[in-house]
Amino acid sequence: MDPITEIKSTGEQEDDVTPLTPENPVTLEGEEVIFKDISKVQTFCYSVGHVLNDLCSAMWFSYFIIFFHQVLEIDSVTAGNLVLIGQMADAIGTPFVGYESDRTTGCQLYGVRKSWHLFGVIGVASSFVFVFNNCIGCDSDTNILSKYIYYTPFICLFQFGWASSQISHLAIIPELTSCKKTRGNLNGYRYAFTVSSNIFVFVVFTILLSVLGGDSSSDNVGPQDLDAFKYLGMIVVGTGVFFMVVFHVGLKEPRRPEHDSLEASQNRNNSFTWKCWFKEPQFYIIGFVYMQTRLICNFTQVYYPLYISTTLNLSKTSIAVLPLVVFISGFLASLLMPVMNKFMGRKAIYFIALLLGFAYCTMAWFLKEGHNSGIQQIWHYLLSVIMGAANGTLLVTALSLTSDMIGPRTHCGALAYGCFSFLDKISNGIAVQIAQVVQPADMCEDFYRVCLTIVPGSFLVIAVLFWVVLLFCDVGNLRHDKRGEEGAQKNINGDEDSGIGEDNEKLGVEGKS
User: Which strand (E) or helix (H) includes residue 278?
Assistant: First the structure.
């Protein structure tokens, strides 16, 4: 690859400059090196690095409650508890992985971020197939506590592995490129494969429900559909592992200097330590924007299939087809992101996505049961299209804002992602648990209508408030940087004053002579 770089000099620089590449990302003293682009092969390999997580996440959020409540016939509160346990394990794992990924040097020859990513892949691949399957040795007489104890370790291992892969995959973006446009594009490509992964899951699940759906005369998901979920889990893991091989073989992580550590990196980056994040108001603002975005996307993903099957009383294949439309719409929206960013900027795009969110919440409230009507079916698909465009745009923009905030502070970028993901996982787990606890025993159709309208609508209102605050932020320009510039200016002024004083003393001595 021919590297295209721009060197902004802040001091003297020699005429002969050795070309720098992402494989040798050395920042020379007095110079700020900005990489314009990375190769197409590297871009593709990075983009598929989260596919295993995305495939598993599609099943986890879309079908976990349905699988445990309607297929395994576990009560709604216990199913909610299992979701909360998984989210808690993920929440605890994310800041831990983020801190350790920043602090440790890992395997230098392989890459620090890639080492943690591989650890996560092993955890996810070895546990997920046991989550979406009947527990070994269980039958209709097995008590709930035994099932609870059986599934909990697999769920925790899956979630911790998922966190390790997610954080390391996000944290490698600022290390691959310093260019804001390229970072935004990488987030866009990453989300495109996220959407593609979800599309793959829903297409395969539609086929499996048709072929292995047990009692074809039943429109409702039930124990007869166990094989469809089991084989879907196996296909998901097998496909994801294939793309993980592509990521690990094809992507070359920029090597840190030998014996590089968190402390050494901080000394080279104006003493910006991981503790400095917690002194930055921008860290909290973008963190809560990210949390609200994830709440909106994940909560609707969890309860949309239940809204389809219970509130709208559509056929069971619809719980695969309509979510498929959602993610196709999100995929198309992600393709427009680079153009939209160029002309509108991230903050304007985020606000438009919020408006689309309010639109689909309103539509979902007024849609009634009537799947035999052609007009009603059109509204169902339109709802899915708007939901996909809104959620996809919100998520890509939130991730891009996070990358912009981290900027050149890659030595503690993983910790920032970890903290944001901690808020995301905790809030999602609590929200789902509360919904499962207050769920009526008679499966009232209006309950899932509320879950898809009033609850996400409340999250959207809070997101608007944080968006207003975000308008007054120059994302990426932190207070620590301003204090560093002021300190440097004082040092320069002090040196100048010292030089003037010395000159005056010399003049005084000469005058006396």
Answer: none
Q: Distances in Å between the alpha carbon of 299 and those of 222, 263, 460, 469?
A: 22, 39, 12, 24
Q: How many CB atoms lie within 10 A of CB 458?
A: 14
Model pTM score:
0.71
Taking only the tens place, the pLDDT of each residue in 268-283 is 444 677 788 888 888 9
User: All domains of the chain, ordered by start, with CATH?
Assistant: 1-36 (no CATH), 40-484 (1.20.1250.20)
Place of tokens 């090196």: 33
What phi-psi label fits residue 137: left (phi over 0), alpha (psi between -120 and 50 degrees) or beta?
left
Q: Residues near 312 by Cβ (< 8 Å), separated by ≥ 6? A: 318, 367, 368, 369, 371, 380
**Looking at residue 2, what is its pLDDT?**
40
Q: In 85-241, where do the E strands start and end? A: none
- β-pairing verdict for 5-9 and 31-35: antiparallel
Q: How far apart are CA 100 and CA 412, in angstroms?
A: 10
List for the chain the helix, strand, coil content (%; round to 5). 75, 0, 25
Cα→Cα distances 82→42, 226, 460, 466, Å = 38, 19, 26, 31
416 neighbors 275 (Cβ within 8 angstroms): no
CA distances from 334 to 185, 191, 348, 384, 393 (A): 10, 7, 15, 16, 7
- Residues lower than pLDDT 70 in the chain: 1-37, 104-109, 213-219, 255-271, 370-373, 442-444, 481-513
